[in-house]
Amino acid sequence: MNEAVLDRVREGHHELLDLVSELEPEDFHTGSRLPGWTRAHVVAHLANNAISLANMTSAAGRGELVDPYPDGDRDEAIERDARQDAIGLVQQLATSHAQLEIVWDSVAEQDWQRPVRFRDGTVADLVLCRWRELEIHMIDLDLDRTEQSWSSEFCAHAIDFLLPRLEGSEVVLAPRELDRTWEVGNSPTHKIEGSCHSIACWLAGRTPQQVPSGGPLPELGPWP
Ligand SMILES: O=C(O)/C=C/C(=O)CC(=O)C(=O)O
């Protein structure tokens, strides 16, 4: 398992808790950067996602495959949990982080490659999923944190992961800080340039502080 990514997830948990712990109670129930979601929805989703990943990991350890949300509807659970007050939300988030970290601390090296039902992946893929969830949803909270806080490693990972959203396009992505480009299609017709943060942020369907140049930017397909 890539220990650096696990460490980054643990740090992300601390950073997220720091961010939400500083909010006034009323700030939870106002907008986020996601249409139709308040910050409370983002927090509830992140907490439920952590428990879902913990449960899939535990099941994989027993040789079982379980659905990400076996007990019911993901969206209903987010709506229900988002109605909690600030203390309830922070407590749910902190408990979910602890549960996920305890489960991942107990995974033996050879068990990271066990299969899970989520995207027919492995337990190791769940760690990458949590990394994306944390980094991307922290900026959705619409606080001081922006895509500028993403590391170049995270930007490169996000571009790799989100590239299928450009299927059918003919472009080259050329993020300034990264020592590589990404080609989509057989004969790219234009080059999209910008910081790795802005390119990754745009591919994640969010509005970057500086929109990449080289447009018109292609329409994005569904999340992979
Ligand atoms: O792997 C990703 O980048 C995204 C994963 C999800 O969107 C997972 C959920 O939405 C969820 O667990 O509810």
TrEMBL record:
EC numbers on record: 5.2.1.4
Protein name: Maleylpyruvate isomerase
Domain Mycothiol-dependent maleylpyruvate isomerase metal-binding intervals: 9-141
Record-linked InterPro entries: DinB/YfiT-like, Maleyloyr_isom, MDMPI_metal-binding, SCP2_sterol-bd_dom_sf
Record carries keyword Isomerase: yes
Native source species: Actinopolyspora biskrensis
Segments passing through the bilayer: none
EC supergroup of this enzyme: isomerase
A Gene Ontology molecular function term of the record: metal ion binding
Presence of the UniProt keyword Isomerase in the record: yes
Gene3D superfamilies: dinb family like domain
Keyword list, A-Z: Isomerase, Pyruvate
Pfam families documented for this protein: MDMPI_N
